[in-house]
Amino acid sequence: MKTSIFHRVLPLAILVIILPLYAQLDDIGITIDSKTRLTVRDSLGYLIYEGESPLFNQVSDGGAIDFYGEKVESIRFRLFDQSGAYKTIPGKIFRQPGLDKITATFLEKIDDVPARFSFKIVSVGNIELNSILIFPVYQERQGRAKALEPVLGDIPKPVIISRDEWGAEEPKNSYSYHPYFDKLTLHHAACCSADDLEEGKDQVYWIQDFHQNGRGWNDIGYHFLVDRAGNIYQGRPETVIGAHVGGANTGNIGVCLLGCYHPPETSCFQTITSESRQSIVELFSWVSDTYGQSPSVLLGHRDYFGTTACPGDNIWIELPRFRAEISDFIQYYFDMPPISMYQSPYPNPFSNYVTLSFDLKNSMDFKINIFDLLGRQINTIERKNARSGRLIMYWDGKNIDGERLGSGVYFAKPTSVNKIDPIKVVLLRK
Fold first, then answer.
1. Are residues 131 and 186 located together in one domain of the fold?
2. Full-prediction pTM beyond 0.70?
3. 327 shares a domain with 189
4. By CB atoms within 10 Å of each CB, which of 114, 133, 319, 376 scores lowest?
């Protein structure tokens, strides 16, 4: 340990002023400074950026800086105690996929507070600092040795991208299982937006890497993640205790919406898409039914201890609507027939093909028979192992032999259901 004459503890009066300023703004850590000034100098073709955190008085598991930069060579932290003595710690660098945004972390138990840390970034290019963060102490509690059995489970599970599909790493240690289920929580990532499946896989893998190696956790903290296209990704198994709400993980199933939804923060202006909204409703409906939880227990991360803005203002304000939509979805499921029309066929009349859309209560082999005006069956359209939910099918105006039919009135009739009248479609050849 060395002592620096340039780094001493600030007077207590100043500390009292600083402490109330920081608050957790996202699920990465607790932001303690977003206005830090950097010094920069040129050294043998490299740019050396240096800065330091304000004093903080919270026991922590480490810290981080969040910044934009392209060609970063190395990052080094110095952690100072109350006497001014410091410990040098190499930083771990986590580059977000598709962006020049970097989070650099160090893991070190900090219980001699007040404390602070400095950092040195060696880079070839320019650096733009976003924020300085600390990691709250995050001990994962022990639970059951085995998973609880599902309670109900009538609502079908939505399509979920498996851990194998997005390339998940194995957990570092064994899981602990929930002893009960009594909480549902919605988060935003405050980063890592994704508009399609491939982007989503990359971002979910980045989050796991950051959680395991940047935070030192056993596995990715969330149970599910949802991208802006509505794709759902399996994080930890939902039956095991997660790491997403410190002090309230037991019995809590956490879902994270990829992206940033807290407008007061820079570049954090996203609003929820209709696709991700529908996926969140279907996912929480299945979770609620399967594990016996009322939608009324759904909270945002900020609702627990008030130390975070997560899931962001643009999502948090939607929570009452989510709870209502989840309840409606569950009620609708138990009231809905096995097969129902979603909307009228379109276009109708048609010349090339007509779209037929249905809602399926359960997965099934689905078949539609096509009849002409004389009641003769002329074709059959089928979908093997059609998933529950919305089903879209098309008829191209041809018979079973692939021959184009002439203009006229035809009828489409799903098999194995008597509550849907034959669907009239009009073929107009040009």
1. no
2. yes
3. yes
4. 376
Residue written as tokens 């950051």?
Answer: 210
CB 357 within 8 A of CB 341: yes
Which residue in this structure is represented by tokens 């149970």? Answer: 223
CATH code, domain with 420 = 2.60.40.4070
Collapsing DSSP to helix, strand or coil, 245 comes out as coil
Which residue type is seen at 227?
D
Q: Is residue 147 included in any domain, yes or no?
A: no
**pLDDT tens digits, one per residue of 390-423:** 899 999 999 999 999 999 999 999 886 656 788 9
**DSSP bridge pairs for 105:** 64, 92
User: How many whole angstroms separate alpha carbon 26 and alpha carbon 262?
Assistant: 9
pLDDT at 4: 30
Residue 152 lies in a domain: no
Helix (H) or strand (E) holding 274: helix 274-291
End-to-end, the C-alpha distance of the chain in Å comes to 86
Question: How far from chain centre, in Å, is Cα 338?
Answer: 31
Q: Are residues 314 and 179 in the same domain?
A: yes
Looking at residue 361, its pLDDT comes to: 82
| Conformation bin of residue 422: beta by default, left when phi > 0, alpha when psi is -120 to 50 | beta
pLDDT confidence band for 20 (50 / 70 / 90): very low
